[in-house]
Amino acid sequence: MSFYKTTRFIFIGVLILSVFFSPMVSFAIYQPGETLDPDCAPGDSDCAVQFTLNSQQGQYYTPIMQFLTMNTPVKHPSNPILAFGESGTCDAVSLVDPTVVKESDGTYKMWYIGYSGSGSSHRTCFATSNDGINWTKSLSNPVMSEGSSGTYDAYLWENRVIKDGSTYKMWYQSADLSGDARFRTSYATSPDGVTWTKYAGNPIFEGGEGKWDQDYAGFRDVIKVGSTYHAWYEARTGSEDFAVGYATSTDGITWTKVSVDEPVLQGDAGEWDDYTIIPNVVRYNDMFLMFYSTHMDNNTGKIGLATSVDGETWTKYAHNPIMDLMDGAESWENTLGTTVTEVIQDSTSSPSFLLYYRGRNSSNNFQTGVVRFDPFATDKNVLINNNSVNPALHVYQSGAGSALFVESGNVGIGTSSPTQQLSLTNAIALVNTTDSTTGVIYKGADRFLHNFAGSGTNGANVFIGKNSGNFTMGGTTNEASYNTALGEATLTNLTTGSYNTGIGNSALNANTTGTGNTALGDETMIANTTGGYNTAVGVGSLYSNTTGDNNIAVGF
């Protein structure tokens, strides 16, 4: 099976997925003019994209294709979205690295690291919002504090929270700076997001002795898919650059490290991301999107995009970075250390993301800002997900969600849950017929429904049935107007006749200029050409009448 790319739409980015029945999956992003396969030259209007998939049952061809309009992420004008607290509060000096959960009722909850000043420790603070932009801090802050000196979390840092059922689960970075100073990952749970209980077996995750993640293994994102937790962590040993590790778990506590000997994603030497990569991952359409950023040297604040189907094998977007937070940076965010720290999908009906980031000023104070990223917000966008589990085609338009759904053999227009072969939420609007290609419904190659009216006529015709009416009739104002045909080949040869009603197979089939005729029944008045004001009811009534006027016939 192959898909063909045309140039009738302008795409800034095109995502092409190939899905395998094995864990290794490739994923690539293309822009106009790039080669989609070795046989497709830049500029070609028809470029075949074919993927060969292997399974135990044999060979399959299953293409998955996305057309993305890669709009530019936009900073919110209200940034920074959190103000410093009063002197002595948990966030009087810095508010950094938020993690956000959007609840089913549309409200938002945020946990962030607060710092009250010299001599104090970093603590976890809490805030709520109705829109993800305007936040109200909790009177219970801080909601979680560091442990006592010499314990595993005497220093606590970035965290990630998800809601699993009715329980909030937090994975947070922790260290005993008076001991070996290694950063590990610890775990806590809460029934309400405010009262937290640290896990007695902390820390639950750490780097491997002598491995690339030995000295720093801190979770940055956790996503639960089905019964499996997926975690991506920032890690390094010594003064090496930070890279991304990956682990999985069935309970969120005991983890199996996938990236034992090497990271799943790291910077490329000499490129904009060569120093360090900070991962932030979201789940979208059965794939993982990673918005990663740097926060050191001259490339601080730049955001890249990478994609994966399995969470382990990642492909960077060829035209990274997609945004530079330092472009037009204000005083609160214009210093080394500005970086994205959290990404959430803000809409379930369309791909719209909120990217929360920390900004750092020249006084070493951190605050939080937000970026909105609507990659599909403009133009028409198509997602084709053709696999054995959930075959689907979704068409997005103008950021309004899916306008067309095709899933599991059902078609939905204006509905995301088609339950019938064709499900509609609103009326169908069919334009008036002006020729054989406009305002016509066909059955195969034959016209089936139209309301053709010749130029200069009043029209008001209705033709329903295979090859009923035609597209050549015409005349003056009242000619070729006010005709109704229902049935195959009814009023097929009409030229200027008006006020005719033909119901039944071939009723008034030969009528050309006859006016005011009513024919009800198969082949009634089938031969009438110019006769007028006749009424025939019954199969074959007035069958042979051609030019006679003012006749009435009832019966076979």
Give a structural overview.
There is one protein chain. The protein has 556 residues and is mostly beta strands. The chain contains no helices and 41 strands. The strands form nine sheets. The protein has an eight-stranded mixed sheet, with no helix packed on it. Strands 34-35-36-37-38-39-40-41 form an eight-stranded mixed sheet, with no helix packed on it.
Write down the overall mean pLDDT.
Answer: 81
Per the principal axes of the C-alpha atoms, what is the gross shape?
Answer: elongated
Give the strand content. 35-45%
Strand order of the largest sheet: 3-2-7-29-30-31-32-33
Radius of gyration: 33 Å
Low-confidence stretches: 1-69, 376-390
Terminal-residue CA separation: 55 Å
Q: Main sheet, how many strands, which sense, barrel?
A: 8 strands, mixed
Structural class computed from helices and strand pairing = mainly beta
Residues in helix, %: under 10%
Discrete helix count: 0
By DSSP, the count of extended strands is: 41
